[in-house]
Amino acid sequence: MKVVFVTPAADIRRNSIYRFGSSFYGRSNSITGPLILGGILKKEGHEVEVYEELYKDLEYENIKDADVICIYTMTSNAPRAYELANIFKEEYKKRVIIGGMHASALPEEALKYADQVVVGEAEKVIIDLIEGNIKESIVYAPPVEDLDKIPFPDYSILKTPCQVANLMTSRGCPFSCIFCTTSRMFYPYRYRTPDNVIKELEMYKRMGFKYVNFEDDNFTANRNRAKEILKKMIQNDLVFRETFFFGRTDLAEDEELLALLRDAHLNRVLIGIESLNQESLDYIDKKQKIEDIEYCGQMLEKYKIKLIASIVLGLDYDTKEDIRKAVQFSKKINAYQLQPAILTPYPGTPLYEQFKKEDRILIKDWQHYDMMNVVFEPKTMTPWELQFEFFKAVNEFYNFKGAMKIFKIFGFEAGMRRLGLWIASKFGKTFFKKKTEKEDGNIYNQLYKLSTEISS
Ligand code: B12
Ligand code: SF4
């Protein structure tokens, strides 16, 4: 059978300006689920192809001979996933299966567009599903118990660009912040043995990848295990040019860990600083103190690990001043990058349930659920003001002076990339201004109108 996996991208991400911008700043990398599932099917003798719309438009001609179309969903690309499902079902008469994050949270919604929907991790059901041995419309897939037993992602079936290999050494997270989807989708928290991770890294070295991302939600959650992996990477010459990872401020408590991260080139980390207001940190159940954030900033600079400071905008206890404080603080600790994320009530999270109960969800079109748009009614400001704070944060953080500092601390490549981000932030501001002036009912006009209604 020929099986095609598609990872859709929302409308705003499927245009040449966005693609040019992200190729200039970012490096293409893949969602690994379809590559793992596709690899399992290939081993069973099926022909498999994987396409990601983020990097290239789909060419229907190339895939119209497929027997089954499998579509991955996250919330912001769900409308596009449903549009594609309709095209494949109605025009091309294909069997369509939908899975992934969003479909797992709202399977009944996804089923309106597909023949079958899978909730959860699909490794254990994918063969029977494709071969027609599972008849249920909504398939509840059990989580993988032993992560060492699943095959590595198969990059040979990926038909769209990919410069960085994504690797997950664990699934889930031992914490449970109220807005987090992954700790709920990938439950319980599980991890692979260091030897199994090392084998996957060896494969990427052989394949010639220069960059690897550790996409675990929290790579350093178990410090001893992380250290063991890092030591083995160094001993076995499995150090890549740069490896990005997600961590928490608590990693700074362990200097041996920091030194190993530096030596294994895990030298770019995204950490959820979230807020500098302790009340807010407690409200989201972050289990993090302001002092932890300050200390982490200092230690990362000492070990030359570039910090991507992620802050959440719009928490119930945060005012505009709190947001501005967090931006200034990120500048002060010489964060390499700021990732302002607008609080987003993703289906499947306690936050979504809370906002639904309080009738605070304003925008229901899922494509805007990408953490860059306000979709709910904030407590301490209007939706429009919060949206404005997002663009203000970006503009405040990125400037020429900051880029020069990064050159000095982290060297030429980091400095150049930071300069690129400064230029991109200028484009972002122009984009926001242009969109705001247009009277075409775009998200900003909608927020402006809603805010006027709320205020009066
Ligand atoms: C790598 C990654 C990216 C990459 C690559 C994306 C791409 N090529 O499209 C980059 C950095 C570019 C990216 C971008 C974005 N991302 Co992203 N990303 C991830 C990350 C870190 C890892 C994905 C992964 O490999 N997971 C591990 C594998 C094992 O899981 P999986 O792929 O989900 O697959 C399993 C199941 O879902 C299921 N399955 C998957 N596909 C299918 C298909 C079928 C048919 C079936 C039956 C089953 C099935 O079985 C699989 C095996 O168990 C996840 C976090 C995470 N832990 O998943 C965030 C995540 C998916 N991203 C997220 C977001 C918000 C975005 C952006 C909107 C961010 C932004 N503001 O730009 C964009 C949107 C991109 C788009 N395509 O539209 C959110 C989504 C939240 C939500 N509920 O919707 C996540 C969960 C991060 C988070 N913590 O919030 N992302
Ligand atoms: S620490 Fe990060 S990955 Fe873990 S639950 Fe909180 S937001 Fe999710």
From TrEMBL:
<keyword id="KW-0408">Iron</keyword>
<dbReference type="InterPro" id="IPR006158">
    <property type="entry name" value="Cobalamin-bd"/>
</dbReference>
<keyword id="KW-0479">Metal-binding</keyword>
<dbReference type="InterPro" id="IPR007197">
    <property type="entry name" value="rSAM"/>
</dbReference>
<dbReference type="InterPro" id="IPR034466">
    <property type="entry name" value="Methyltransferase_Class_B"/>
</dbReference>
<dbReference type="InterPro" id="IPR006638">
    <property type="entry name" value="Elp3/MiaA/NifB-like_rSAM"/>
</dbReference>
<dbReference type="GO" id="GO:0046872">
    <property type="term" value="F:metal ion binding"/>
</dbReference>
<dbReference type="GO" id="GO:0051539">
    <property type="term" value="F:4 iron, 4 sulfur cluster binding"/>
</dbReference>
<protein>
    <submittedName>
        <fullName>Radical SAM superfamily enzyme YgiQ (UPF0313 family)</fullName>
    </submittedName>
</protein>
<keyword id="KW-0949">S-adenosyl-L-methionine</keyword>
<dbReference type="Pfam" id="PF04055">
    <property type="entry name" value="Radical_SAM"/>
</dbReference>
<feature type="domain" description="Radical SAM core">
    <location>
        <begin position="159"/>
        <end position="373"/>
    </location>
</feature>
<keyword id="KW-0808">Transferase</keyword>
<keyword id="KW-0489">Methyltransferase</keyword>
<dbReference type="GO" id="GO:0005829">
    <property type="term" value="C:cytosol"/>
</dbReference>
<dbReference type="InterPro" id="IPR058240">
    <property type="entry name" value="rSAM_sf"/>
</dbReference>
<keyword id="KW-0411">Iron-sulfur</keyword>
<dbReference type="InterPro" id="IPR023404">
    <property type="entry name" value="rSAM_horseshoe"/>
</dbReference>
<feature type="domain" description="B12-binding">
    <location>
        <begin position="1"/>
        <end position="140"/>
    </location>
</feature>
<dbReference type="InterPro" id="IPR051198">
    <property type="entry name" value="BchE-like"/>
</dbReference>
<dbReference type="GO" id="GO:0031419">
    <property type="term" value="F:cobalamin binding"/>
</dbReference>
<dbReference type="GO" id="GO:0003824">
    <property type="term" value="F:catalytic activity"/>
</dbReference>
<dbReference type="Pfam" id="PF02310">
    <property type="entry name" value="B12-binding"/>
</dbReference>
